[in-house]
């Protein structure tokens, strides 16, 4: 039995699940841009809102932090970079590197923003079926000339469907190699080659099988048109987003 | 003459490489409601034959007819009538939820949305998957995945179901569960073709056994008449037959 990550869609009847995917995409894009202008007051407000949504989606903060630990590590490096590269009053000196007060504040602010954007992305992906995301992508791309929107949307949905499978295959190959003491191999290039070749082979085989099985089920670009589910709350969500964005620009 | 033959295969040959036929001069027909087991060791040509039946491969010579229509000329017609379930369900399942995957085929047929919902609900209930309809297929057990792959085919209203090694990688309970659903489908009028080398599990239910070896049909008869000959072609004879008890139900 496979294991779900936080990025996988989880079935539920929550407010976010019932919202039109197009609305969720617009709101996500709008908030991600306006959050770049936000200061601490606005960040506190949006964090409280997001914590509320996390609770409503039954996502525990601890498990969220565990699953994005590498992202948090990246944020830590961003924080350090900001803290030492911003001019200002020196807070403390670690050997010859000086951490400034302004740098630490700026680092916290930037990392907090990135963290919120990441959590918003997780909320979006766990509350949106890839099939709805595919439909929304198709809907947004339709007015653009010379863009094969149906082909692009099916590629998006297949990528989302098979990305966890690719990761699983990478893990399988790594485990199979560990059983043959691959850790003893010190050359990093050889290590990469040893993993990437069998993984690539498996991915191509998998893609080939997928194409055949799709063909066996009469796949073509002319399929039943997508259906959007609306909760009726979309207008209120747009208004709330505009208010929230205004707060972020103001504070 | 009125015939109930729904599949007719005439002198079918297929080469992957020149002068190395994977299928050689195969001729047989399938009547409505038959339950056929096609047995053969690995590389005997079972999967190639199934892909030819579904129009996924083009024959080098010979032809396959479904309801009198050539598969090579009417591949979509063939796929609407003959559903092929592959060996590995993981590469066959494309939907992010059980419901979405079962709806994939009907969506390809451009059916109206309410008709798709009706069909999918019916099939998921029939295969005991309805309570899992919102589940991510990655979280299903092996047996459930296999049933979902079958549901994805049946939602296209196919009357012929072709299963390629359906019991591979399944544990005992998963195999029993799948067997009971295959029997259910056979009893409800579906024509079933199963490729396997594990005869023991399925042969009791079959009305006909076809043995393949090196791309050729070596035997085609009632299971009881052929069962003693299978080991010559690398297929394990069921224990009950070995001990002189004939063909017994595998689930005992």
Description:
- The complex is a heterodimer of chains A (251) and B (252).
- Chain A is mainly alpha-helical and 251 residues long.
- Chain A has 2 domains: 1-129 and 231-251, no CATH class; 149-220, no CATH class.
- Helices cover 69% and strands 4% of the residues of chain A.
- In chain A, strand 1 (90-94) and strand 2 (97-100) form a beta hairpin.
- In chain A, helix 2 (21-34) packs antiparallel against helix 6 (101-127), helix 3 runs antiparallel to helix 10 (234-250) and helix 7 packs antiparallel against helix 8.
- By secondary structure, chain B is of the alpha/beta class.
- In chain B, the strands form 2 sheets. Chain B has a 6-stranded mixed sheet, sandwiched between helices.
- In chain B, helix 7 (172-187) links the parallel strand 7 (160-164) and strand 8.
- In chain B, 49% of the residues are buried.
- The A-B interface holds A 1-4, 8-11, 129-131, 157-158, 160-161, 164-165, 206, 209-210, 212-220, 222-224, 227 and B 51, 54, 56, 76, 79-80, 83-84, 86, 88, 90-92, 94-97, 100, 104-113, 116, 134-136, 138-141, 152-153, 156.
Briefly note the structural class of the backbone of chain A. Answer: mainly alpha
- CA-CA gap between termini of chain A: 48 Å
Strand order of the largest sheet of chain A: 1-2
How many structurally independent domains of chain A?
Answer: 2
CATH architecture annotation name of chain B: 3-Layer(aba) Sandwich
Number of domains of chain B: 1
Structural features:
heterodimer; A: 251 residues; mainly alpha; 2 domains; two-stranded antiparallel ribbon; 2 strands; flat; B: 252 residues; alpha/beta; Rossmann fold; six-stranded mixed beta sheet; four-stranded antiparallel beta sheet; 10 helices
Could you give a quick summary of the protein structure above?
Chain A folds into two domains: 1-129 and 231-251, no CATH class; 149-220, no CATH class. The model of chain A has no long low-confidence stretch (mean pLDDT 86).
């Amino acid at each position: 039995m496979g294991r779900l990550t936080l990025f996988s869609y989880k079935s539920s009847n929550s407010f976010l699940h019932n919202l039109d995917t197009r609305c969720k995409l617009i709101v996500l894009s709008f908030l991600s841009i306006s959050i770049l202008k936000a200061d601490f007051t606005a960040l506190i407000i949006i964090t409280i809102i997001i914590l509320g949504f996390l609770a409503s989606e039954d996502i525990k903060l601890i498990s969220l932090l565990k699953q994005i630990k590498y992202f948090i590590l990246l944020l830590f490096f961003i924080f350090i970079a900001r803290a030492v590269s911003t001019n200002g009053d020196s807070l403390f000196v670690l050997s010859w590197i000086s951490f400034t007060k302004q740098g630490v504040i700026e680092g916290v602010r930037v990392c907090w923003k990135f963290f919120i954007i990441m959590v918003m992305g997780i909320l979006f992906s766990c509350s949106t079926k890839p099939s709805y995301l595919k439909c929304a992508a198709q809907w947004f791309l339709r007015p653009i000339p010379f863009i094969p929107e149906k082909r692009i949307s099916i590629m998006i949905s297949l990528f989302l469907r098979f990305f966890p499978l690719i990761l699983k295959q990478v893990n399988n190959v790594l485990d199979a190699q560990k059983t043959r003491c691959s850790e003893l191999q010190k050359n990093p290039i050889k290590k990469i080659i040893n993993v990437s070749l069998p993984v690539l082979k498996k991915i191509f085989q998998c893609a080939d099988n997928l194409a055949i099985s799709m063909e066996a089920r009469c796949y073509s670009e002319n399929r039943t048109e997508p259906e959007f589910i609306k909760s009726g709350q979309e207008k209120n969500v747009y208004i709330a987003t505009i208010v929230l964005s205004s707060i972020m620009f103001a504070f | 003459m009125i015939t109930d033959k729904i599949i007719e295969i005439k002198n079918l040959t297929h080469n992957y490489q020149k002068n190395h036929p994977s299928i050689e001069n195969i001729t047989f027909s399938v009547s409505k409601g038959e339950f056929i087991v096609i047995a053969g060791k690995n590389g005997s040509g079972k999967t190639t034959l199934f892909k030819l039946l579904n129009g996924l491969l083009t024959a080098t010579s010979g032809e396959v007819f479904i309801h009198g229509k050539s598969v090579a000329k009417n591949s979509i017609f063939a796929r609407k009538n003959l559903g092929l379930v592959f060996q590995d369900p993981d590469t066959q399942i494309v939907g992010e939820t059980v419901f979405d995957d079962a709806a994939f085929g009907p969506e390809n047929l451009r059916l109206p949305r309410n008709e798709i919902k009706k069909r999918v609900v019916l099939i998921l209930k029939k295969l005991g998957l309805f309570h899992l309809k919102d589940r991510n297929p990655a979280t299903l057990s092996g047996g459930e995945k296999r049933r979902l792959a079958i549901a994805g085919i049946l939602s296209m209203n196919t009357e012929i179901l072709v299963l390629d090694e359906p019991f591979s990688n399944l544990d005992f309970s998963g195999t029993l569960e799948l067997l009971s659903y295959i029997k259910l489908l056979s009893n409800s009028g579906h024509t079933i073709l199963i490729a396997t080398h594990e005869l023991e599990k399925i042969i009791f239910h079959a009305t006909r056994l076809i043995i393949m070896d090196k791309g050729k049909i070596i035997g085609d008869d009632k299971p009881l008449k052929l069962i003693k000959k299978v080991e010559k072609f690398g297929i394990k004879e069921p224990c009950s037959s070995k001990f002189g008890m004939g063909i017994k139900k595998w689930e005992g």
